[in-house]
Amino acid sequence: MTTKIAFIFVSTTLAVMLAGCSSSPSDSDARKVVENAIGSCDYVKVTDFEKVNGIASGDNYYTLQVKYAIEFKPFDKNIIVAKDILGQAEKFQSEVVQPSRTRRDAYEQARKEAVSSGKYENTGAYDMDHSAEWEKYNIDNEVAINPDWTLNNFTNKGRAILTNNLRELCPNMNQVVYQEYAKAAINKHLDTFKVPFENNKLTMIKSDNGWISR
Hints:
Layout: H1 2-20, H2 27-38, E1 44-57, E2 61-72, H3 76-116, H4 123-129, H5 131-145, H6 147-169, H7 175-183, E3 193-207, E4 210-213
Antiparallel strand pairs: 1-2, 2-3, 3-4
Helix pairs in contact: 3-5, 3-6, 6-7
């Protein structure tokens, strides 16, 4: 019985040593390095990991090409924020942009008809005679032409709120995680979404405990 136990112990130890002396990093070795670099959080994880290629640099160094995705899970606080932002954006379109376009088009049509009828020599003369309406027209025209400028400012503020909420929930993540989260479209935050990544220079070194990040 003692001999059998000793044999099992030696065999297990040898297997661990051989695993630790692998000639190249395994998929799990590389994935662990990426996961450690990304950070740990219940709402953020590495998925779809693939070791594409690798190049040895001597016996103890390896440079890998890997592909993976960072998956973000939705959470209640940001679902509420995202719905609010989307609702306000829709309201802006219906209550500000569309009415501005309607008023702009009406002014342009009235001006065109007035000039065509010969009442005014040109559009400039019409504008001068309707200075108050002309000022309102310019405001409406700016909104009608560039609604995205206002919407982008609005949604960028929303993205900042969403990202700060993630920071509070997952405070120890790599900065890349927050940066990519901040770029996502607002509606993405209503459900699970992934951001693809590719790293062509994941460098690893062989240690007594196996392959680790260099």
